Amino acid sequence: MNKKLCVVGLGYIGLPTAAMFAKAGWNVTGVDVNSIAVEKLNKGEIHIEEVGLGELVKAGVEAGRLKAKLTPVEADCFIIAVPTPHRADHTADLTYVESATKAIIPFLKEGNTVIVESTIPPRTIDDVVAPLLVEAGWIPGEDIYLAHCPERVLPGRILIELVENTRIVGGINEISAQKAADVYRSFVTGDILITRAVSAEMSKLMENTYRDVNIALANELVKISEQLDVDALEVIQLANHHPRVNLHQPGPGVGGHCLAVDPYFIIEKAPEQSVLISNSRKINNSMPEFVVSQVRKMLPDTNSKIAVFGLTYKGNIDDVRESPAMDVLSLLQEEGYKLGIHDPHVEQERVNFHLSSFEEAVQDAECLLVLTDHNEFKQLDEETILAKMKNTVVFDTKNCVSIQDENISYYNFGNLSETKYTVQEV
Predict the structure, then answer these.
(1) CA–CA distance, 86 with 94 (Å, rounded to integer)
(2) Phi and psi (nearest 5°) for 414?
(3) Among residues 279, 262, 277, 114, which one has the least CA distance to residue 202?
(4) 7, CA 20 to 30 Å: which among 57, 69, 86, 309?
């Protein structure tokens, strides 16, 4: 295979995608404005954490099928995988998508396929990307092909799910969808479903919105249960024995670039019709304050030290984007608490908070607050906790920690009501 691919955006999706296509035999050039990411890739190294990605990138570079540049190059296919952040008013910022589209225009030639993988609001392909191509003199769907194929992968399993997951390919017209589907067939073993671009855009948003709404329901249950002295975690477990019920797990909030952002792209387009989606966002956004309110009950003295474990929005990754843990930390700082912050997956240069080792974080702490379900936190060093903490209380917002020693007081979202009566005695 001598086909050439240009992937614009070498982040959490673009880099694994580029490496996977290189493995499939494509000659791939990854493009990014981040010079460090470009330099590392050309050395066969990676700038993000993902299982198996380092080996895959190294193999692609050594085989001569994967390289990186700061600007696009000519190719048979272009994949745009740049961020789509939201503004302060929660509307989508399509600046990166627009810039990436404009950047590839000088390198387009007849018969090329352009695929946008970035998560985008409905009608972005039709109303934003296609007009830019038309303005440049192209006719999308005729002399070049345009499609949207949203990524649908789980961090920590990206390389597996890129291959095995069903892919949805939405074209500006049917031939565009078919051309884009042919691109993915070079390595995807899952089903490839062909549809319109707007349907593909909306399907991705609804996948994540479904999960956001479900988590909001679980989080609202936690708040209700705290008032009614009910074990919310037990209620969820019992309810999920029903064959048609699948309540998600509660937590300190919702993070990442998908669940915490995608629902807003729907709200933006139809605010009056998306009442449930909007309320779910409010519920999940309220959880960091709820967590801090429980900490206040456990530690009324704001001069106390809290050991905070976990900054990422989910376990076993290094991604802190939209992480509710960051909001919890900011709120705790505003309260005046002293903080010892520990996350074995996050490098210091990624965050503004000072990171500590396990031992440093728990030294003289009066509460150990778990905000991320890293594997390293599931079996904590209880001897060190007992030896170094001033007050051995663990508040586990992810229900992931296993505590064996009865001298350590353990709280999660299942026994919050007890903190009103017993925590002061610990």
Answers:
(1) 9
(2) -95, -20
(3) 262
(4) 86
Q: How far apart are CA 28 and CA 30, in angstroms?
A: 6
Token digits of residue 366: 């009066």
Q: Which residues pair with 171 in a beta bridge?
A: 147, 196
CA 205 to CA 359: how far, in whole Å? 41
Q: Tokens standing for 285?
A: 């956004």
The domain 4-196 is placed in CATH, from the list 3.40.50.720, 3.10.580.10, 3.30.930.10, 3.40.190.10, at 3.40.50.720
Q: Which CATH class is domain 287-425?
A: alpha beta
N-term to C-term CA, the chain:
67
Place of tokens 């009066």: 366
Could you tell me which residues are beta bridge partners of residue 116? 80, 148
Q: What is the mean pLDDT of residues 290-310?
A: 96
Buried b or exposed e, range 18-27, using 16+ CB within 10 angstroms: bbbbbbbebb
Q: Per-domain residue ranges for the chain? A: 4-196, 287-425
Residue 236 near residue 278 (C-beta atoms within 8 A) = no
| More confidently predicted of 138 and 152 | 138
Query: 169 and 181 in contact (C-beta within 8 Å)?
Result: yes
Is residue 420 classed as helix, strand or coil in its secondary structure? helix
Helix (H) or strand (E) holding 368: strand 367-370
User: Burial level of 264, CB count in 10 A (0-12/13-18/19+)?
Assistant: buried
**Cβ(146)–Cβ(179) under 8 Å?**
no
pLDDT value of residue 425: 38
Beta carbons of 75 and 29 less than 8 angstroms apart: yes
- Classified as helix, coil or strand, 169 is strand
At residue 418 the predicted structure's pLDDT band, cuts being 50, 70 and 90, is low
Do the domains 287-425 and 4-196 match in fold? yes
Q: How far is the C-alpha of 390 from the C-alpha of 225, rounded, in Å?
A: 30
Strand partners, 393: 409
Cβ–Cβ under 8 Å, residues 255 and 324? yes
Only one residue has tokens 């106390």, namely 304
Which of the four pLDDT bands, split at 50, 70 and 90, describes residue 160? very high
For the segment 162-191, the average pLDDT, to the nearest whole number, is: 97
